[in-house]
Write a structure and sequence with these properties.
Elements (H helix, E strand, L loop, with lengths): L20 E3 L6 E3 L3 E6 L5 E4 L9 E4 L2 H9 L2 H6 L9 H22 L3 E3 L1 H10 L6 E6 L5 H17 L8 E2 L4 H8 L6 E5 L2 H18 L3 H11 L4
Parallel strand pairs: 7-8
Antiparallel strand pairs: 1-2, 3-4, 3-5, 6-9, 7-9
């Protein structure tokens, strides 16, 4: 049983920090908050995603999936949940995805500034072959629109290196961003391949990538597993 009176609304970001689960207003399933997105109402009455769970006011929680957010908009779940008339834009599901993408780009940019990203086919290949402990590759990053041949070659190098070192865990692969978005994050052009190195900033990137992939793919049970693998979340 949930430890709060209203199953759909929280009492604000400060009062419910200890909550670890919430009920989705669409599916009515109780899920970990990491699998949900918090929505709040702006002073002008517009519904907006609160990805960092810090915006003031009571929050309504929806499963972190594009389909769930679209259904919440279409079937007026926000007005029902907030118990008043609110405006949810028809583009809310897409707008929320754009915010998630922006968060992933920003996290990758921060990782790059911290020296935790290398890019370019040859450099990534060299890093995979060396795999020095202090410079360990935590994930491979491929542009979603990258050529299959290059992706296949680097993935093969990663698998071979893992086998040669007797490691049981494969290197995660992230394909959540396009080449244009990788260019934006890394401040250079034509980025197709990159490697994420160990460090605090890299963990933030992997976490946000996982949420984005879940949002895009969580509606299909078969792709949900793929989402977990491709997101690169280190569990």
């Amino acid at each position: 049983m949930l430890a709060f009176a209203d199953p759909y609304l929280d009492n604000g970001p400060r009062t419910d920090r200890s909550a670890t689960v919430r009920m989705c207003a669409v599916t009515r399933q109780v899920r970990p908050i990491d699998e949900l997105i918090r929505f709040v109402v702006s002073p002008s009455g517009e519904v907006m995603a609160d990805l960092k769970r810090k915006l003031p006011g009571r929050g309504l929680w929806i499963s972190a999936s594009r389909q769930a957010v679209a259904e919440a908009t279409r079937r007026s779940h926000f007005s029902k949940g907030f118990k008043r008339e609110v405006r949810a834009a028809p583009t809310l599901a897409g707008d929320t995805e754009n915010l998630l993408v922006r968060g992933v780009i920003d996290a990758l940019a921060m990782a790059a500034k911290a020296g935790q990203v290398i890019s370019g086919f040859s450099k990534v290949e060299g890093a995979l072959e060396q795999r020095q402990a202090q410079n360990s590759v935590r994930a491979l990053i491929h542009a979603a629109d990258g050529a299959a041949d290059g992706i296949r070659k680097l993935d093969a190098v990663a698998r071979q290196n893992t086998a040669n070192n007797g490691e049981s865990r494969e290197i995660p692969v992230v394909t959540a961003l396009t080449s244009e978005q990788l260019d934006l994050a890394l401040g250079r052009s034509n980025v197709i391949h990159a490697a994420l190195l160990a460090g605090p900033a890299s963990k933030t990137f992997l976490s946000r990538s996982h949420v984005l992939v879940r949002y895009r793919m969580a509606d299909d049970d078969k792709t949900a597993g793929k989402a977990a693998r491709n997101s690169g979340t280190d569990r």
